[in-house]
Amino acid sequence: MSDTIFGRIAAGEIPADILYQDDDLVAFRDLSPQAPTHILIIPRKPIPTLNHLEEEDAELVGKLFLAAARVAKQVGIAEAGYRVVINCNAAGGQTVFHLHLHLLGGRPMQWPPG
Ligand code: AMP
């Protein structure tokens, strides 16, 4: 659980600005926000990347997306709109190897992303 910075946040070992948590997941503000609202949603289970998902994780993944939508409402960006991103491995821009959703909002998002 504690092998990455996000594992340590999930374990309560280091502080984070937590907006929601339950038995399965934690949602907290990104330390280096790329948008006015930038929230990370992580499973407590230490899944390193999207490539490591297994069939047994299907319900958990659903819960991560449901949490993203719920937190988007909670922080007031749901109606205007937002983006949810998962980076996978080096070419995908992943730097922390504990699966996470980025919830980005508060400004218009560009497409395609950089
Ligand atoms: P990624 O590049 O997809 O792996 O995203 C990792 C994200 O974690 C980056 O947006 C970082 O700003 C963010 N981050 C790293 N350390 C922390 C931390 N201690 N608390 C909150 N966000 C963090």
Strand content: 15-25%
The tally of strands reads 5
Integer average pLDDT: 96
Helix-strand pattern: HEEEHEHE
What is the makeup of the main sheet?
A: 5 strands, antiparallel
CATH architecture term: 2-Layer Sandwich
Written description of the protein model:
The protein has 114 residues and is an alpha+beta fold. The chain has a single domain (5-97), classed as HIT family, subunit A (2-Layer Sandwich), CATH 3.30.428. The protein contains three helices and five strands. The chain has helices at 5-10, 58-74, 89-92, and strands at residues 18-21, 25-29, 37-43, 82-85, 101-105. A five-stranded antiparallel sheet has the order 1-2-3-5-4, with helices on one face. The longest helix has 17 residues, at 58-74. It is globular. The mean pLDDT is 96. Adenosine monophosphate binds next to loops.
Features:
single chain; 114 residues; alpha+beta; HIT family, subunit A; five-stranded antiparallel β-sheet; 3 helices; 5 strands; 22% strand; binds adenosine monophosphate
